[in-house]
Specification:
This protein is an alpha+beta fold. Helices cover 46% and strands 11% of the residues. It contains six helices and four strands; from the N terminus they run αααββαβαβα. It has helices at 3-7, 32-46, 56-83, 110-119, 132-138, 157-169, and strands at residues 88-91, 100-105, 125-127, 146-150. A four-stranded antiparallel beta sheet has the order 1-2-4-3, covered by helices on one side. α2 crosses α3 (56-83) and α3 (56-83) packs parallel to α6. The protein is extended.
């Protein structure tokens, strides 16, 4: 930016910080630990696919694609299982979606379902999940909305089977 323009801007800053341009725009010591954490997270994600090769970017893209395939395979098992239960209503069926199921269980509030699943050491969310208008349009908001169960790369088939078995017990 043009130094003349920068001299006219007064950002919030620490009193001990220099008022000279460009230093008045710096927030102090960079978050080196956070930056190291970002690098470690990218390296972790890039190593998810043992067969991935090439640059870090190439490995990351291959690993993320492998993680998506894994999650979607498990998600198919989850949605097929939930969809086959008469006491479960499963919401949403877009052609492409993240591995997240949103459902209700007949005769039980989403909060009660989440509590019962927690007793099985299964972590889910309950509520509108910021889909306020959608839950109103679906007519489920006043009853507590729904239960949300998501899958990620470290889940496996046993996690899905435990969730399905626990939800089946609620019928």
């Amino acid at each position: 930016a043009a130094p003349g323009l920068l001299r006219g801007l007064r950002p919030d800053r620490l009193a001990s910080q220099s008022d000279l341009v460009p230093y008045r725009f710096e927030r102090g010591t960079p978050p080196f630990a956070d930056l190291a954490g970002v690098t470690a997270a990218v390296d972790h994600l890039a190593a998810l696919d043992d067969s991935a090769a090439g640059s870090r970017r190439d490995r990351l893209l291959a690993s993320m694609a492998a993680a998506e395939r894994h999650e979607q395979q498990l998600f198919g098992v989850l949605t097929d299982g939930l969809g086959s239960m008469r006491h479960v209503t499963l919401y949403g069926s877009p052609r492409r979606r993240t591995a997240t199921a949103y459902f209700t269980v007949a005769g039980r509030t989403p909060r009660a379902v989440a509590g019962l699943l927690a007793g099985h050491k299964i972590n889910v969310w309950d509520g509108h999940n910021y889909a306020w208008e959608l839950t109103g349009a679906l007519g489920i908001r006043d009853a507590g909305s729904a239960v949300r169960a998501g899958l990620v790369h470290y889940n496996d088939r046993s996690d899905v089977d435990r969730l399905l078995a626990a939800v089946a017990e609620l019928g």
